Amino acid sequence: MTIGVLAVQGDVREHVSVLDRLGTETRRVLRPEHLEGLSGIVFPGGESTAMWRLIDHGGLAGSLSEALRGGLPALGTCAGMILLAREITNWHERYLEIMDIAVERNASGRQVDSFERVISCDGLGTLPAVFIRAPYVRRLGAGVKVLGSMGDLPVLVREGNWLAASFHPELTGDTRVHGYFLDMCRKER
Questions:
Q1: Nearest Cα to 187, choosing from 19, 48, 73?
Q2: Catalytic member of 15, 121, 170, 185
Q3: Model pTM greater than 0.85?
Q4: What φ, ψ does residue 184 adopt, rounded to 5°?
């Protein structure tokens, strides 16, 4: 099983490191041909606008959309959640528009407002979570399941083969979110 990590910008190295610790082969995805043969793909945290410009400029947008709509499992963390969301409530652009969620960009505040919390997640227990200029889910489609919350706020959601987190699981040393995603990928195979 090979998991791609979108490598245009953001926490690429950190996600690759977690997947390596879990014994999973990885491939950095920069071009359409890098999608061939993947069992899943990770959209890392970073800066969503910069990431999208690089995806679009590199000719990767159409291939990513096609692969995801064809069933390729995906994990999006922070900016990755924004890339996957169908709607962005406070931004005029749309990106891949895959998951039936509406998110608010930078809802947790500026960089200096970053924080850590312990959150409770279905099937995973309590997890450490790092929030950096985090998007918050403001609307959930009928097929979206909330796996983890911070109070009443959904911060880990799943729709079919797609998993999205408002936080950065790659920065905590805890591998359970990635492990859950790898289980999703195995079941899809």
A1: 73
A2: 170
A3: yes
A4: -60, -45
Q: How far is CA 177 from the centre of its chain?
A: 11
Known active-site residue 25: no
| Tokens describing residue 21 | 């610790």
Say whether 78 is catalytic: yes
Helix 176-188 vs helix 12-21: crossing angle, to nearest 10 = 70
* Domain of residue 94, CATH code: 3.40.50.880
Determine whether 34 is an active site residue: no
Domain count, the chain: 1
For residue 63, how far is the Cα from the chain centroid? 17
The string of pLDDT tens digits covering residues 14-47 is 999 999 999 999 999 999 999 999 999 999 999 9
Question: Active site residue: 159, 168, 178, 185, which one?
Answer: 168
Q: What is the pLDDT of residues 137-164, one digit of tens each?
A: 999 999 999 999 999 999 999 999 999 9
Domain with 80, as residue range(s), is 2-188
Place of tokens 């911060």: 155
